[in-house]
Design a protein that fits this description.
heterodimer, A: alpha/beta, Glutaconate Coenzyme A-transferase, 7 helices, 14 strands, about 25% helix, B: Glutaconate Coenzyme A-transferase, 10-stranded mixed β-sheet, 12 helices, globular
Chain lengths: ~260, ~325
């Protein structure tokens, strides 16, 4: 991006971190969510309790965790618990406000695929699978999705539903209630181009366009006719302090964000 | 005074891991017994079913070495880095062309979510026929794995999903310390090692150090697995490298990054296995080859816990 003082990935992580303002307990996913949540903790949500599926409640990581089970999430944490306790009591018990997920494919209703590209029994690409994502999508009170946007990832039909979002659209909320899910599903999708929220019929709608991104770029990188909010706003650019935290503290090697 | 269960890695694997077994080397990113995985490769076990939430590099290596027939798992990746390419070659279409005699055998998969795997070990440990959980609704996972089944509550009209018990023939865990009798203490991430150990028919504990039974008894809350269910204790400092041991050494992230390129190339990977597993006679040789300088960079600073007073009651 010529002339810009920040990269699309940095904008994406900053926008994701800001969404956590006012939230209390967040279940952290691998990769980009990890950075976004740790940025939020240092900016808009200092009291945020970080929960890692590896079995940590109230983490205070002193460095950006290298993986979802880094020893830095244990040292100084409120509690290190078994994974049974984490998934059964903290997540399924309803204590998680926000679950942060990434995705290889997502559809207009926020259903997520992280399992395979192609048929399950003979896939073109074998992806990692669910991990804890399927139970986070069902049991976290709400789900934030963070992912780079492309025509390959924003698709009309996902190849495998690993984590349920708004299912077939209207009626998803009724299904969730009837089946006793605690979560109301995805509420926001943050990409390198913009921020999407969901209409009452369960379909995502572009709400914010990042500085430097265009509607043409957005449309070219989505496999369906995307809804755009009336008077779509520009995402406020990252502040110098947000950029400093990302570059100096959270990703000094530029592994995720350059 | 309990009998010592201390054994060499060679003898523990030779006696307790058999062809065709279901083997669980557990430890969620933390405390992964690469030392045991390498010894299983060296001893040429075949047709193993490998169970683990996150197969990690250790199962990528074991699959590449030809010890496994099947994988039971919930997240298949190189944590924080990318894919597990040796395993992917045994799954993906491009490497699995029918009729191609050069193609590697397809790996059988049995796939769950993390909570599903933890629940399976829990059912196995508690001698239950299944474990219920609120996962899998409206997903394709029960289609991909028909062992994930809906079940009605006997107390109302709710439907939840059930997973079957997982009872490994052998569970192998790495730990900070144990007594010679196998009473095992762990701190840091606890994963599901306790459940996997109690669920198993045989248990091997690999430790950084063996301690006097009095050390265990001075802090009974820290005991994860009692010697009651342990068959062998193997002393293998640095035995979890390149994964980590809380308080002892950090993950060797450079190796996790390097593995990506190694495992993308089948020939290079087989060369790595020869150099770092087959041509070495055990963990001591591996550590010597790795070098003290590299190991020294993995030592963390100190962050001791306070101590508690259990009280004396006579």
């Amino acid at each position: 991006m010529t002339g810009a003082a920040f990269t699309p990935n940095e904008m994406m992580v900053v926008a994701a971190a800001r969404e956590l303002a006012g939230r209390r307990v967040c279940f952290v996913g691998v990769g980009l969510p990890n950075i976004a949540v740790n940025l939020a903790k240092r900016t808009v949500a200092p009291d945020l309790e970080l929960v890692y599926e590896a079995g940590v409640f109230g983490a205070r990581p002193a460095r950006l965790p290298l993986s979802i089970g880094d020893p830095t999430i244990v040292t100084g944490a409120t509690a290190a618990v078994s994974m049974f306790e984490l998934f059964a009591f903290y997540l399924q018990g309803g204590l998680i406000d926000v679950g942060f997920l990434g995705a290889a494919q997502i559809d207009r209703f926020g259903n997520i695929n992280t399992t395979v590209i192609g048929p399950y029994d003979n896939p073109t690409v074998r992806l990692p699978g669910s991990g804890g994502a399927c139970e986070i999508a069902i049991n976290a009170r709400e789900v934030f999705v963070i992912m780079r946007q492309s025509a390959r990832s924003f698709v009309e039909e996902i190849d495998f539903r690993t984590s349920p979002g708004n299912l077939g659209g209207a009626g998803a909320a009724a299904t969730r209630r009837r089946q006793g899910w605690l979560g109301r599903g995805p509420t926001v999708v943050i990409t390198d181009l913009g921020v999407y929220r969901f209409d009452t019929d369960g379909e995502m709608r572009l709400e914010l366009l990042h500085p430097g991104a265009t509607l043409e770029q957005v449309r070219a990188s989505i496999g369906w006719e995307v809804r755009v909010a009336d008077g779509v706003m520009a995402t406020p650019a990252p502040t110098p302090e947000e950029l400093r935290l990302l570059r100096e503290e959270l990703d000094p090697g530029g592994v995720y964000l350059r | 005074m309990t009998t010592s269960k201390v054994a060499s890695m060679h003898d523990a694997i030779a006696e307790l891991v058999r062809d065709g077994d279901t083997v669980a080397i557990e430890g969620f990113t933390h405390l992964i017994s690469f030392a045991a995985g390498h010894e299983i490769i060296r001893q040429g076990r075949r047709d193993l079913t490998l169970a683990r939430l996150t197969p990690d590099l250790v199962y990528d290596q074991m699959v590449a070495a030809g010890v496994a027939r099947k994988l039971v798992f919930s997240w298949l990746g190189n944590p924080g880095v990318g894919g597990l390419h040796a395993i992917r070659r045994r799954i993906e279409a491009a490497d699995q062309t029918d009729g191609d005699s050069a193609a590697l055998d397809r790996l059988e998969l049995e796939e769950y979510s993390h909570f599903g795997m933890v629940a399976r070990y829990t059912a196995g440990a508690a001698n239950l026929p299944f474990f219920p959980l609120r996962s899998y609704f409206e997903t394709d996972l029960p289609v991909a794995n028909p062992l994930i089944r809906p079940i009605s509550s006997p107390y109302g009209d709710e439907v939840v999903y059930a997973v079957p018990p997982l009872k490994p023939d052998v569970t192998i865990v790495h730990a900070q310390r144990a007594s010679a009798g196998g009473d095992t203490q762990v701190w840091g991430l606890l994963g599901c090692q306790k459940e996997a150990a109690f669920a198993a028919d045989r248990v091997i504990v690999v430790v950084e150090e063996v301690v006097d039974e009095r050390v265990v008894r001075a802090d009974p809350n820290r005991t994860l697995i009692p010697g009651l269910v342990v068959d062998a204790v193997v002393i293998e400092p640095w035995g979890a490298h390149p994964s980590y041991v809380q308080g002892s050494y950090d993950r060797d992230n450079a190796f996790y990054l390097d593995w990506d390129a190694i495992s993308r190339d089948e020939e290079r990977l087989q060369g790595w296995l020869r150099e770092w597993v087959h041509d070495l006679d055990g963990r001591a040789a591996y550590l010597e080859k790795l070098g003290v300088e590299r190991l020294a960079t993995l030592r963390p600073g100190s962050a001791p816990s306070g101590s508690v007073d259990y009280g004396e009651y006579r």
